[in-house]
Amino acid sequence: MIVTLTPNPSHDRTVTLAGRLERGAVIRAESVTSQAGGKGVNISRASVSAGIPSIAVLPSPPDDPFVHELLAAGIDCRPVPTEGALRVNITVSEPDGTTTKLNSPGPTVTGSVLDALIEALRRRVSAADWLVLAGSLPPGAPDGWYAEVVAALRNGGARIAVDTSDAPLRALVDGLETAAPHLMKPNAEELASFTDTDPEVLEADPVAAACAARALLDRGVESVLATLGPHGAVLVTDDGAWHAAPPPTTVVSTVGAGDSSLFGYLLGDLRAQAPDLRLALAVAYGSAAAGLPGTTIPQPHQVRPELVSVRRLDLTSGD
């Protein structure tokens, strides 16, 4: 089972344009879709679609339409009561796959809500295989809150994966000596932000990305899945490093592709697959998501890991 935490959930609205986005112009949308979202919620959605039990923990008024939407979709949603309407995130999608995101901050959480979220996770962590902490933190949460959650629950039974960015990611990295998750999933830009490297170099050079990710293993993280946009992803564990190149994909929207990649990796792990096969499934899920509109999570039949090319990396010689 996969338990997910989405501390800053959102109603995700995707505006699809027939042409390029032009500032200051009046543009007619081709379509507008809305979906209950957030990184952890997306992973729970993918999990249910693949037949893997999942519980989605998040702060929300219990009667919010967000909660009802997830329950109607078959997702076991466990809201921790909080005040204020959930945020709305807007994605503008252009025909060439370019996406522009407008993310609102979300309602402010109190210390009691944060404590209740940890307690909600604590009650379920022993029954889970993976606990996924994903997304931004809401206003009111300290930057180091993810590190606090990891430290509190790391020995609770489930392995912990974290996918976040900006200040919460930096705080987590700063606290790895006492709060290292089992898995981290940065993208190239996030990986560069705490390794003092160029994100464009990391995205284009799998060996450089793997070497940067290796620094996290030296500080207690067991595995790092680093997504590299159109260049696929690298996986680094104590057993070695691998790079997976994606199959040819017509990109429709990259929103949710990273979440799908993370789920693909977790699915491979739950199937007890070898590291290279877990990486292939991760990239296959991410590529399938990139070929779908909005934040659509791919169905298992849309995922083609056999089309993903994986090679082992030699980090001692530079290739």
Distance between the termini: 37 Å
Widest sheet: strand ordering: 5-4-1-8-9-10-11-12-13-14
Mean pLDDT: 94
- Secondary-structure-derived class: alpha/beta
Q: What share of residues are in beta strands?
A: 15-25%
CATH topology (fold) name of the largest domain: UDP-N-acetylmuramoyl-L-alanine:D-glutamate ligase
Level-1 CATH class name of the largest domain: Alpha Beta
Q: What is the number of independent domains?
A: 2
- CATH homologous superfamily annotation of the largest domain: Ribokinase
Number of helices: 10
Please compute the radius of gyration using only Cα atoms.
19 Å
Biggest beta-sheet profile: 10 strands, mixed
H and E string: EEEHEHEEEHEHEHEHHHEEEHHE
Structure, described:
It is built from ten helices and 14 strands. By secondary structure, it is an alpha/beta fold. It folds into two domains: 1-181, UDP-N-acetylmuramoyl-L-alanine:D-glutamate ligase; 185-319, Ribokinase (UDP-N-acetylmuramoyl-L-alanine:D-glutamate ligase, 3-Layer(aba) Sandwich). A ten-stranded mixed sheet has the order 5-4-1-8-9-10-11-12-13-14, with helices on both faces. A four-stranded mixed sheet has the order 3-2-6-7. Helix 1 packs across helix 9 (257-270) and helix 9 packs antiparallel against helix 10.
